[in-house]
């Protein structure tokens, strides 16, 4: 075995979680693991599985729900330029209402089982903005079944998008965009997913982590510069019109600067105040100065 092969063998594998939600596509679309000098393994997972695997240490980095970061914030650092955020409508975190909002707030709301961040955003808005306390039910994300059991239903991601399309074709429900409601009330951004990395891998592989972060940032910038390839991919994989997906991708923001951080900090303050999270959360932003 020559020196180079030995060095390859000694290299640590950096395991990156990949979720296939359209809202993180811009960061993954142009990312090529083979171009990294680090040994990289991409691990497909649904958000709940990725959150758990990151917590247990079987995945080293990835886009995790903001709430999952809050729960385990001591173990993670956050990349400063990567997130899934929006200011105003996000078009994929939707509360469907079969009665006026004032009645739904005192009735039953069915919650999707797929996202703690959105569930807790709804609970914060309901408790703090409307001073209401409805009964919540957890259900699989099937709108008609949810509506048979409750007065309102929270759906997120591609489930919300498809249900919204159906409702446009055959209007049955009022639809409330939670991100728009948050922004109207607080004036702040809402960040739904953050890009977290376990602190232990940062300490062991600082150079490789820097390179990987740069590659994801480059993918994000390419996606912003040329959204059309993502738009066509979404039409092919999920359906809908190119016009809809242009509007959707334009409404998302993948930065994580001071404005996005401030909105997320407020979300965590309310979550702590309402007992949805059991400790105060501080955003720990990764930078090379804080490594090693």
What does this structure look like?
The protein has 292 residues and is α/β, with parallel strands linked by helices. The protein folds into 2 domains: 13-86 and 190-274, 3-Layer(aba) Sandwich (D-Maltodextrin-Binding Protein, domain 2); 93-186, 3-Layer(aba) Sandwich (D-Maltodextrin-Binding Protein, domain 2). The protein has helices at residues 3-10, 25-28, 47-56, 66-71, 101-104, 116-129, 143-149, 157-169, 178-186, 199-204, 206-225, 228-237, 242-251, 258-273; strands spanning 13-18, 39-44, 61-65, 76-86, 93-97, 108-112, 135-139, 152-156, 174-177, 190-198. Helix 12 (228-237) crosses helix 13 (242-251). The longest helix is centred in the last third of the chain and has 20 residues, at 206-225. It is globular. It comes from Paenibacillus aquistagni.
Rg from alpha-carbon coordinates: 20 Å
Q: What does the largest sheet look like?
A: 5 strands, mixed
How many separate helices?
A: 14
Amino- and carboxy-terminal Cα gap? 31 Å
Strand content: 15-25%
Structural class: alpha/beta
Give the CATH superfamily of the largest domain: Periplasmic binding protein-like II
Total count of domains: 2
Keywords: Lyase, Menaquinone biosynthesis
Family: Belongs to the MqnA/MqnD family. MqnA subfamily.
Protein name: Chorismate dehydratase
InterPro entries: Menaquinone_biosynth, MqnA
Secondary-structure topology with pairs:
Blueprint: H1 3-10, E1 13-18, H2 25-28, E2 39-44, H3 47-56, E3 61-65, H4 66-71, E4 76-86, E5 93-97, H5 101-104, E6 108-112, H6 116-129, E7 135-139, H7 143-149, E8 152-156, H8 157-169, E9 174-177, H9 178-186, E10 190-198, H10 199-204, H11 206-225, H12 228-237, H13 242-251, H14 258-273
Helix pairs in contact: 6-9, 12-13
């Amino acid at each position: 075995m020559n020196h180079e092969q030995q060095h390859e063998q000694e290299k640590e594998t950096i395991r990156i979680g990949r979720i296939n939600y359209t809202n993180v596509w811009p960061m993954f679309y142009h990312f090529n693991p083979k171009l990294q000098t680090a040994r990289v393994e991409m691990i497909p997972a649904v958000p709940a599985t990725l959150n758990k695997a990151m917590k247990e240490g079987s995945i080293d980095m990835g886009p995790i729900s903001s709430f999952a970061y809050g729960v385990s914030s001591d173990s993670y650092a956050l990349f400063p330029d990567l997130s899934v955020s929006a200011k105003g409508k996000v078009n994929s975190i939707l509360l469907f209402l079969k009665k006026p909002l004032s009645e739904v707030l005192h009735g039953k709301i069915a919650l999707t089982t797929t996202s703690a961040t959105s569930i807790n955003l709804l609970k914060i808005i309901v408790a703090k903005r409307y001073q209401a306390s409805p009964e919540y039910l957890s259900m699989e994300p099937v709108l008609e079944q949810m509506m048979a059991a409750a007065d309102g239903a929270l759906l997120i991601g591609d489930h919300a998008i498809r249900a919204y399309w159906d409702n446009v074709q055959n209007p049955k429900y009022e639809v409330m965009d939670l991100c728009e409601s948050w922004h109207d009330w607080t004036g702040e951004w809402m960040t739904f997913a953050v890009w977290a990395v376990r602190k232990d891998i940062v300490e062991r592989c600082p150079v490789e982590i820097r390179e990987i972060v740069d590659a994801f940032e480059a993918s994000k910038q390419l996606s912003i510069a040329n959204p059309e390839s993502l738009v066509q991919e979404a039409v092919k994989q999920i359906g809908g019109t190119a016009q809809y997906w242009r509007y959707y991708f334009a409404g998302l923001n993948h930065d994580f600067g001071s404005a996005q951080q401030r909105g997320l900090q407020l979300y965590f303050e309310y979550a702590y105040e309402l007992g949805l999270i059991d400790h105060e959360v501080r955003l720990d932003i990764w930078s090379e100065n804080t490594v090693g």
